[in-house]
Every structure is written in C-alpha cells, then in structure tokens.
Amino acid sequence: MSGFGYNINGFGVDGGGGFRIQALVVAGGGGGGGTVGGGAGAGGFRLSTQSIKAGKTLTITLGAGGAGGINGGQPSRGSNGSVTTISGTGFSTITSDGGGGGGGYTPDNQRVGANGASGGGGGFRGGVAGGNGISGQGNNGGASSTYVYGSGNTYNMGGGGGSGAVGNNGYDNTVGGEGGIGTASSITGTSIYYAGGGSGAIQAARSGGRNLAPAGGGGDGGYLGVSPTAGTANTGGGGGGARDRSALAGGSGVVILSVPTDSYSGTTTGSPTVSTNGSNTIIKFTGSGSYTT
C-alpha cells in the first residue's frame, strides 16, 4: 500500500514510490530533585511509521538530560530535559518533549514536580504534588508522602512519571515513591525499555539500598548519606531524587530508525551505530546527526 498517501499512526505520508521507515524518538529525562527531592519524569516516548521517498535528508536533534537540583540552594528542583526532534522534507516532524524535573526543597515553588513529557515527583514533604505529563508521551509524577511520625512528616518523596505508568506516591515511614516504568520497544530486535521515571528520595535504606527505579533507565532515589543515581544515557530516564545532597541529571534521549535494508543508503552524519535486524537496517543515534534516504 506504500505510495497511496494514507496515514500511518496519525502522521501524514509522502505518497508515490516511497518506502516505510520506523522511528523511535525519545527525549531527555528530567533532573532529580535536590535536598529532599522527588524523582524526575522521563523524556517523551514516541514511535512512528511513515512513508518516505529516496533522496530525502532527515535531521535528528537529540535532547540532553536535565540537571539535578542543588542541595540547599536554587534551583532545588531538577531542570527539565531537552526535546528530541526528527524532521525532513516529505516527513512529518516528530517532537518528543523533555521530562519534568523532580521537586526539591526551597523555595515553595521549587517543591512541586515540574510538568513535562512525564511529570516530576513531588519534593520536600507533606503531600506536595507531582507534575503533569503529556498524553501520548508520558504520565504524571507522584506526590510526596503525607505520613507523619513523631513530631514531623516523613521524607519519602514522589516518583517521576514514566512513559508506561504514573510515578508512585511516597507513602509510609519506610517507603518512597518509585518512578513509573518505561515502555518496551523491539525496534532493534531486542526488547529494551526506554523513558522510565526516576524514584524519589527516601527516609532510610530499603532492602537493596536505594529506592530502586523500574525498567526504563530512570535513576534510583537516594537516602541520608547515600547519593541517588542519574538517569541512564540514551534512554530518556529521569534522575533519582536526593536526600541532603545535590541530585544528578536525567538520561539523554535517543533516536532509532528502522529502514528496509534494500532501501538503506548508508549516508549518515553524527556517527550513529548501524546494525541489522532481519530484513531491516537499524540506525541508532546517540547524538545529533542526519540520515539521507
């Protein structure tokens, strides 16, 4: 049916003698929240199949992960990740938005998880809200715990939203909010999760240590005296939230193209990794670049 000008996955196609190309487009994850921080939201996850003619240049701009929030300073909320785009003549532009930064400690407007492709988890304590995600790219972040023990609230923060699920709320005196799981794709021939949310900071060590993030490259939440972890590079995972220290960055984005091998031109910039999967050639961009069909 290629060449009839129909729509695939909601995107317009370039009719007339083209071939189908599949694109996975993941943006940068947000940075984790600092001091008493929520986990960050994952970068946007989008998968599109379009038809394109030979001789067209696709330009890839890869989004970086957002910086982690600062301990005891501003901004204590993590920064949002950067957008990833792929565009070209005869190809409907795909834009994935960056993940929202995890909520921090001070000032008040830094405590709420930031909005993004997936929202950052709530920071500080006492039921601070997570940020909102974008439908079709990710999910909302979780809120920080309202649990009270002794004379004060707990320090279990919300998890960042992932492309596959919302971030979890922080809850009792031992458990912080885990990030939302990412989304699995087999575009390379192997099932890999991308765009998972970072987990929030916790009151005390859980079994296994940090507040572990689910599949998708999100960072683990830290606890008193132990650092969180960053989002994994080229997954779009959000950074984990920190306790009494600065947080770390979200994972950078990735673009992966799947092209019929008999239509693969071999003309690229930006040094992508090239492999094969059955009858398709796989072009993986871990930095900005281009592919000419």
Architecture overview:
β4 and β5 form a beta hairpin. 62% of the residues are buried. This protein has 293 residues and is mainly β. It is built from no helices and 14 strands. The chain has strands at 19-26, 45-52, 57-61, 84-88, 91-96, 148-149, 152-153, 183-185, 192-194, 254-260, 267-269, 273-277, 280-285, 289-292. Helix content is 0%, strand content 23%. The chain is elongated, with a radius of gyration of 20 Å. Strands 2-1-10-13-12 form a 5-stranded antiparallel sheet, with no helix packed on it. A 5-stranded antiparallel sheet has the order 5-4-3-14-11, with no helix packed on it. Mean pLDDT is 91; it is low at 1-15.
Which secondary structure elements does this structure contain, and how are they paired or packed?
Layout: E1 19-26, E2 45-52, E3 57-61, E4 84-88, E5 91-96, E6 148-149, E7 152-153, E8 183-185, E9 192-194, E10 254-260, E11 267-269, E12 273-277, E13 280-285, E14 289-292
Antiparallel strand pairs: 1-2, 1-10, 3-4, 3-14, 4-5, 6-7, 8-9, 10-13, 11-14, 12-13
